[in-house]
Amino acid sequence: MLTVIGYPNYWLAKVIASKLKAIEIDVYDKVFPDGELYVRLANPERVALNKVVIVSTFYPEQEKRILKTMLLIDAAKNNNPSKLIALIPYLAYSRQDKVFLPGEPVSACLIMKLLKNAGVDVLLTVDVHSSRVLECFNGLSVNVMISDLLVKHALRYLNNPVVIAPDKGALERASLPAKTHGLDYDYLEKHRDRVTGEVSYSPREINVRGKDIIIVDDIISTGGTIAESSRMLLKKGANRVIVAASHGLLVGEAIKKLESAGVLKVILADTLGLRHEHKLIEYVDITDKLIEELNKVIA
Ligand code: R5P
After folding, report:
1. How far apart are CA 137 and CA 49, in angstroms?
2. Which residues have any ligand 1 atom within 6 Å of their CB?
């Protein structure tokens, strides 16, 4: 028997429960007068000896979502599931994956340890910033790569594009769909000021003259990375630029920034607890891919 517990009002939980023909347990939640969070499973008896999938995502309101998800995991664990799987498409804090400046924590690793210690047996996520941090989970984890689906969608608009990673760390994310779709790929040399967060690019020999481009990245937050790289590629003579990213946080003026940097379209996966409505943005449905991966770990 399979039971799904969704983060309150997270649409993905309903879709997963219906596609897997699982029971979805309702969650009652409230905030105490002093601001503390409370959750309660409506039918805890449906957890005992069942495989349970907790479906959540860590954006927006990262801290609240992280804590509430931990409470849900604990509530489920207290009722003896046979296996506890967490499906969390977006893992917040994943970019602090090492100590960049002395005195910093490794936040990404801490989140992994919290999930494991709360009782998660298997973790499924989507295109985590650096798959290395999954080692901190110290258990079975699956990082579902979807850049091939995003690039497939972008190909509707472009002619034999070059797939570009905005930094060397994202090269695998770009090479994977490029190989799948028989496209050329390359990367840019990005630098980020660790104190101001400002992004700049070093000159690097890269031939994009007259070519269409798909920039592939994991996260678009302020849009600074993509805006800078798009501008640079267009300046080098690129024809059209489309962006394919897994997690479109798009904070503040990000969409405007991308538009004014000449980005034609922003193709995103629907991994967050919010959607942006704008003519530039298109979402790709990745639920079938998630179901495929979930079925493997459930079996
Ligand atoms: C960083 O290495 C990530 O892969 C993204 O490139 C970055 O988080 C994007 O952030 P922003 O949109 O603020 O430049």
Report:
1. 23
2. 95, 129, 166-167, 170, 199, 217-225
